Amino acid sequence: MGGGGRGRAGAAGMRLPAGVRERVAAVHCGAALPERLRLYDGWADRYEEDVAALEYRAPHLAAASLAFAFPAPPAGARLLDVACGTGLVARELHRRGFRCLHGVDGSEGMLERARSTGLYRQLRRCVVGREPLPAPAEHYDAVTVVGALGEGQVPSTAVTELLRVTKPGGFLCLTTRSNPSNLRYKAELEAALAELERQGAWQKVLAQEVERWERATSEEESTQGTGYISGVVYIYQKCPVPPLEEG
User: CB-based burial of residue 5 (10 Å sphere; 0-12 exposed, 13-18 middle, 19+ buried)?
Assistant: First the structure.
């Protein structure tokens, strides 16, 4: 892309308030876990305002993809929203008929905001990737991880723990970003996803690349001079997959 395209990307990033760019950069800078959790606690009150400025589409895209894949009316399905943040994914799921929502997050500040939505039946603190999920095996009809599978956040090795708490035939909805600073992580994640499929642990239902995932916070992170970064929604179904009903 020529200099004009890069200029547009830089301008797009610069139009974001400096505070938004700084807060996003801070949580992705590779800080040690206690410091990162402290940053999320401090960000909780402004988080939804900031992601609105970023035009962050992952919660909407993930919920829509999961609802499309889900074979039955979702009202009775038990769902775990991992790294639930302030409840953005829960709002989107609720609009699509999901009612039995549980959430976990490592940040008490984020959990407090999620609690205030009234959309979760259960919320627990859990640092995913560092400790087991607070649930028995094969407990959930669906598990979501939206926005947290990325460099310096939830490690790609955590996908086996997500599988553990999912019922056979249940769905897992995962997202990651495709911006330059996350490409190494994305490759590691996709290798882990493919290996679990090769082992027969789950099967891929969907992998959807989305160009305008959210606004780029810097010229370097922009996709082809658009001023946005791209991302991916993955849907997997845990094996054994139940047979289709006749009739």
Answer: middle
Tell me the two tokens of residue 30.
């590779």
Q: Where are the alpha helices (DSSP H) in the chain?
A: 3-15, 18-27, 33-53, 58-69, 88-95, 108-117, 159-164, 183-198
State CA 138 to chain mean position distance.
Answer: 21
Q: What is the rounded distance in angstroms from the CA atom of residue 31 to the CA atom of residue 20?
A: 18
Residue 144 tokens read as: 């979501």
Classify 235 as helix, strand or coil: strand
d(CA 150, CA 55): 18
Q: What is the pTM of this model?
A: 0.90
Angle (CA) 108-112-116 rounded to 5° is: 165
3-state secondary structure of 160: helix
Mean pLDDT of the chain: 90
Identify the pLDDT of residue 5: 36
Six token digits for residue 208: 């959807």
Section 132-154 average pLDDT: 96
What are φ and ψ of residue 145, in 5° steps?
Answer: -135, 100
For range 2-18, the mean pLDDT: 50
